[in-house]
Amino acid sequence: MPVRDERSLGVRISLNLFRPAVVGLLAAASAGSAIAVPLTEEHVDVAMAYPAATPSGWRLYWNDKDNGQEHAAGDAFARGGPQAQITRPAGIAWDFTGVAAGQPLFVLPQSQTPSLPFLGIGAEGVATSTFVGPISLWRTAVSGPGAFSLFQTDAFGAITPFMASADGITAADTLDVFAGSHVHYAWSFTQPGTYDLTMVASATLPGGSVTASDPATFRFVVVPEPSALALGVIAACGGLAALRRRRGLLAAQSPACPPAPRFVFPVLIPSLSPIKETP
105: number of CA atoms within 13 Å, CB side? Predict the structure, then answer.
């Protein structure tokens, strides 16, 4: 019977655990131009400009202020890592999020936080004299494994929701944005995964006519923290391999570490299917 050398078992288990992410990254690399730009800790806005050289006269896009770059809505995505996970506070004021108190909630906060994107909504591409009254930013659709919401908290902890998908799409899913402004909000998600948020901007021109943008879809990817069980398996089997190396023992002479469990983690990139703008 051949002798199995288990000295590299911990490394192999680590690779098996994260194989889905590795496969996803390799697939993305082969897709070439299909890869979107990840926004992971930048100061970035969901931005709007008017007038713009588009059929509607509007442009809705990502504005990466840290790097001085602009991306079309479908050419980038905001990604929240494990640091986005919080525990939903108690109180009915948080019920709009769609998750029960004490359960995980993934939040891209309105204040700058290390290792998370600092997301705002900006209309600095619109002159203050362009419209009569504010711009209305509508959430017209959202897809994903859980519920999405947009809110702010003040210095005293009071919370004000602006958009929430837990109760479907209603007339309340609109946000007043003033021309030339730039405001930050908290963006929350109830489950890890990929979310596509479709929005439309509209406003009233000085002559009284209303102008509206074409729908633009922005992607958000929420990556959870690895499970404690997965990390425990890696640590235990890695430690066993190190102990065997020190003692010079072969796998056949000591108990074998159990087969690597097949954990599935979300791929650290969005799905490769291109975002389709609603006509």
Answer: 25
